[in-house]
Amino acid sequence: MTSTGISRLFPAVLAVIILALASVAPVAAAEADLAPLVQEFSNRKYDPKVEAIEKLGASGDMRAVAILKALGNRDLYTMKSGDRVVLARETADGMAISDPVTGEDLGTVPEKALQKIRLNNRMRRTISAAIGTLTLMSPDAAIRGDAAESIFLSRDDDDLEVLDAALAKETDPDVKLLMEQARAAIVLENGSPDEDLIAAIAVVKSRGDRDALSVLTGLANGEGPVAEAAKEAVTGIENRLELWGAAQNVFYGLSLGSVLLLAAIGLAITFGVMGVINMAHGEMIMIGAYVTFMVQELIRTSAPWLFDYSLFIALPLAFLIAGLIGMAIEHGVIRFLYGRPLETLLATWGISLILQQAVRTIFGPTNREVGTPDWMSGFFKLGELTLTYNRVYILFFSFAVLALLMLVMRYTAFGLQMRAVTQNRPMAGSMGIRTGWVDKLTFGLGSGIAGIAGVALSQIDNVSPNLGQSYIIDSFMVVVFGGVGNLWGTLVGAMTLGVANKFLEPYAGAVLAKIFVLVFIILFIQKRPRGLFALKGRAVEQ
Amino acid sequence: MSGLLMRSLDRYAVAFFVLLAAVAILVPLANLTLPAGHPLHVSTYAVALVGKYLCYALLALSVDLIWGYVGILSLGHGAFFALGGYAMGMYLMRQIGTRGVYGHPELPDFMVFLDWKELPWFWHGFDQFWFAMIMVVVVPGLLAFVFGWFAFRSRVTGVYLSIITQALTFALMLAFFRNNMGFGGNNGLTDFKDILGFNLQAGTTRAGLFIASAIALGLGFLICRMLVRSRIGQVLIAIRDAESRTRFLGYRVEAYKVFVFTLSAAMAGVAGALYVPQVGIINPSEFAPANSIEVVIWVAVGGRGTLFGPVIGAVLVNYAKTYFTGALPDAWLFALGGLFVFVTLFLPQGIVGAVRQGWGKVSRRKRSGDEPAKPASQAAE
């Protein structure tokens, strides 16, 4: 336990934090203090080395943590000529050495020129305690918390003494709780009287995460009051984790729902408002994704510093390009087919084949690489939830698009005309609205929104000529399920289907879950042929 | 009944049957009797190809029956076709016996590969030809009956029905792609050896399958023709043109629709069953929604509501597909896509419809130069 204690004690995260802090610590004052202490490590005897370690521990200087860690990992050497203590790292040419205190680069020397500083168990224990003292007593609460956390994970008996000392002085309640949990974990790991153990179990249980679970499961297997208490705690934690798991599923579901929503909003306009079945809708999404690809290519070759803004440049472009293509399709084909929905379906399917093949001919059949800007990559933790930034942004983006669209429909002249034409075409025409032009713009709007969806989806899906195909059936399902001609219905439909899908997945697997959802919609349509939010009134009977 | 049969056999129908019979006899004959170098020799490849077209024609016919005469646009007929194909494929798999790679006496290769110990319940009986043939009709028919019963009873019509039929075939495709469904997953069913004891690779067997396809197409045509010329057919057309009015007149529209939908699905199943031994494989991609939409365009090209049209359309479009995918593979989707647009915009009645119209113009010389009337004031569907 003791020999591996140090390497297990402080994970890389902590080291990074400490190094970052070390760089802003007051350099000049501490430097003078640390360098002679470090030089003590060149001593062949152990006593002076132990003493130096203790002094480093007492120095309160954060840089000492990195030095002690290097010592514990046996990265510190003495030069055979001159006995200088250096930090050495193996490279292809030999050993790259630097000053352990200042970090100053001292060049590269052959391995033979260096002598490793020896450790014994007493030194290791001292190092561990010194690092513990430095971090647990640090003036920064975050460092103290991290130190307590890593002690919880290592559960090393040696840290108990330092921990108790730190606990006595601790004032921050959060850090104090972490330290108590760490102490309890050590107690549990290393045996104590039963009543102490039961108290410790209660403390560890209050953490309620997977790490706590791994501390407790070992104890829960035995007999007696301790095992009983451990078992109870394990069940409690498991229940809590299950709840978090469900919350995670809800997030995945909402994320899938937002993707469906993005894909379906445009369709809700063309299909829901105009009654036009646009089978080429998926291809508009694909075009949006390819616009993103092209914008990024241009940026890569001519203006790399713009890369982080590439999506903001792509959004209006994708809207315009997909919208213009949509208007061209409306002008060239669809306006001749109003009132013949089945023919429209076939013609737009033909257009989708042409667009797919055109993109395949221009860009090739394989996936194209679309990069993710820095601000969209990575993840963050919320309780036990892991949320990736791109999914969170897309979730909010889909809501923003929907809200914007609703505002346009409700408060602009174009929206008013659009609704008028939908409700009563001849009457709208006789009031002086150019119905043909409104149709064209509406179709362009729906297609443009599909293009915007493509920009977002390029971040989470493969950009290939088949991109649109994978969304078309799902988007139709959303619109039909939610109810045609109702944007709220589209929102509810998308989110319901997304969440339902993700909740079925753990039980049935991804494919079967999708099949269940499809079958459910097929049955649902039988029950409510006009969707969740059906338009009421005589229009329905047409 | 015989009166109806006579009514169904007007001179065009007779011409169709004569042509079909000629193809059914001459093509296999030219393949089997003439030597390979002879200018009139038909290669075995061509026999299989034309046999495939005949199956497609039967499939197109089944779509025309519901789309052309009842106005139900099914975008999921490929599912019924594939189900019939799978029923046949299961029979053929069982015929392999110990000749598979693993030589298992009962289990098909893919089941041995998946380490299954016994035959799933739904594979029982498929070693019998008669049972498989019943299933070819019953499975698609039953699915269509249940689906149609639900859909038509709740009056799901128009594009809604199209979209959920598409969802149906999409769901089936996903299901059949799964390995543990017990239908060979991704790879489907293949490596067939023989049918009813005849080697599938033999020229005579292929000729037999070819003739069977021609007969099935002929029978399918006759059934459809008799159906649409009967009183039932009149009601069907009434439903297509004015569904609500027909309902108000006291006809049970749902019953008619379910009946025709089921019949059509069974026909598609038969087409699939004949298709599989000639092509030698059936896999889940047959369920792809794109396939089903392609069938619709065959019907549209030929002319819907004509029964001749779909047969012509299926053969023409598939011949073009064979030609293009060989000569100009990149251009095929452009051509197919363009065909969809062109036919819906400029040839709404299809080839047969256009020919009829042209014929009508010629025979009525007096009326000349009037454009085909656009649907002027159509009540929104």
TrEMBL record, chain A:
<keyword id="KW-0813">Transport</keyword>
<keyword id="KW-0732">Signal</keyword>
<dbReference type="GO" id="GO:0005886">
    <property type="term" value="C:plasma membrane"/>
</dbReference>
<feature type="transmembrane region" description="Helical">
    <location>
        <begin position="284"/>
        <end position="303"/>
    </location>
</feature>
<dbReference type="InterPro" id="IPR001851">
    <property type="entry name" value="ABC_transp_permease"/>
</dbReference>
<feature type="transmembrane region" description="Helical">
    <location>
        <begin position="506"/>
        <end position="525"/>
    </location>
</feature>
<comment type="similarity">
    <text>Belongs to the binding-protein-dependent transport system permease family. LivHM subfamily.</text>
</comment>
<feature type="transmembrane region" description="Helical">
    <location>
        <begin position="250"/>
        <end position="277"/>
    </location>
</feature>
<dbReference type="GO" id="GO:0022857">
    <property type="term" value="F:transmembrane transporter activity"/>
</dbReference>
<feature type="transmembrane region" description="Helical">
    <location>
        <begin position="476"/>
        <end position="500"/>
    </location>
</feature>
<dbReference type="Pfam" id="PF02653">
    <property type="entry name" value="BPD_transp_2"/>
</dbReference>
<keyword id="KW-0472">Membrane</keyword>
<feature type="signal peptide">
    <location>
        <begin position="1"/>
        <end position="29"/>
    </location>
</feature>
<dbReference type="InterPro" id="IPR052157">
    <property type="entry name" value="BCAA_transport_permease"/>
</dbReference>
<keyword id="KW-1003">Cell membrane</keyword>
<feature type="transmembrane region" description="Helical">
    <location>
        <begin position="309"/>
        <end position="329"/>
    </location>
</feature>
<dbReference type="InterPro" id="IPR017779">
    <property type="entry name" value="ABC_UrtB_bac"/>
</dbReference>
<keyword id="KW-1133">Transmembrane helix</keyword>
<keyword id="KW-0812">Transmembrane</keyword>
<feature type="transmembrane region" description="Helical">
    <location>
        <begin position="392"/>
        <end position="409"/>
    </location>
</feature>
<keyword id="KW-0029">Amino-acid transport</keyword>
<protein>
    <submittedName>
        <fullName>Urea ABC transporter permease subunit UrtB</fullName>
    </submittedName>
</protein>
<dbReference type="GO" id="GO:0006865">
    <property type="term" value="P:amino acid transport"/>
</dbReference>
